[in-house]
Amino acid sequence: MQFSTHLSSTVQTQQTSHSVWQAAVQAGYPAAIWRLPNRTDREVIIDASGHVSTVVMDLEELPMGFAVSPFINPEAENTFFLKADFYWRFDENGTVLAAQNKLSDGHPAFEALFRSEPSGSKNETVSTVKVIEPSDNQQNNFEKNVARAIRQIERGTFRKVVLARTKTVRFEEQPDIPTLFNRLCSAYPNAFVSAVYLPDLNQIWIGATPERLVSVDARGIFKTVALAGTQPAYDTEGRPKRTMDAPWTQKEIEEQALVGRYIIGCFKKIRVREYLEEGPRTVVAGNLMHLRSDYSVDTQVLNFPQLGTVMLRLLHPTSAVCGMPREAAQEFILDNELHPREFYSGFLGPVNVYQAEGPETHLFVNLRCMKLEGQEGTLYAGAGLTEDSVPAKEWRETELKCDTLLSLLTK
Ligand SMILES: C=C(O[C@H]1C=CC=C(C(=O)O)[C@@H]1O)C(=O)O
């Protein structure tokens, strides 16, 4: 799809990622801001329809936009999609590198979004936050659920399940999302950092996830990963551990291997044998370390341009967030978890966004994230369980995962 590169000069050159985000939220337009792993530029999309519609994820057909999927989304047919009516790319200092606009002159969104002068970077602080510490009851319930899951694993109902929990925080006033976003970008350079405003739901989701679900770059290279196993990235004295020294238990090796086997099973289903597998290796994700295997396929050599779409439908939800076998694990999650996951452990990311060489899609699993509704934030974290799981250790693991965001909120 081609874009007009025209934007009124005020819109094109004077905006910052801060000001366009604020303008969209104030005017009630869906907006997404993101930074890809190991990149410095930030990208922003605003949907000028004022609503987020749902689409079937067909990467071949979809226009440029930003996808947000809930955890429960069979065949990815019910995915929220922000159309790129406005698109900007900024460098890390906020200079506009590219700006595109799909609307005709005089569209009411121009007026609503940019009627005032760009406000610049006002209020670059995150308001004071009160963490509602989980009660013993919450911890007990989670650990009871873990024990219940282990019994089901021993009975053979499933081999692995991922159980999640929430943690609530209250802000004195709505936090400044672009500031929080910038903090996440600086703290987690190899994460996918994003914030999405969904006015219909009155929610903002913000996070820094380490898990790529499906990417197809401009050269047609498909990528996915098998990520699992968790340990702190720092030793007890607070010194960073060396990845080569990270000790992994049999439980964690098996947990990650199950995710890898699941991905290979998906390739087998569609008779793709020409995939490259690298790893598993230890990777750092903020305050944590994981085991990760990387998979890639050259879709052009294979003459299989739909691979991204086909794999997305097969992969989501992977056994890194659901379990194995998938159906039994999902049933257990729906029956036992105390909070609906909503967009946590769904996927999100840019779709068909033009880069120098052509359109690219980069979808990530929505982990290490927070839902913000007014002044209340809900953090989500899950832990992969196998028969060797210890309930108290799994709770501790979810606490560490919540810290990825919490440590930056309480800074
Ligand atoms: C489910 C989460 O993490 C997944 C990704 C990496 C490691 C995981 C684990 O060790 O359990 C989880 O499978 C989460 O962060 O909420």
Automatic annotation (TrEMBL):
Domain Chorismate-utilising enzyme C-terminal: 139-401
Membrane-crossing segments per the record: none
UniProt xrefs under Pfam families: Chorismate_bind (PF00425)
SUPFAM superfamilies recorded: ADC synthase
Domain of life where this protein originates: Bacteria
Name of this protein: Isochorismate synthase
Protein species of origin: Larkinella terrae
Lineage per the UniProt record: Bacteria, Pseudomonadati, Bacteroidota, Cytophagia, Cytophagales
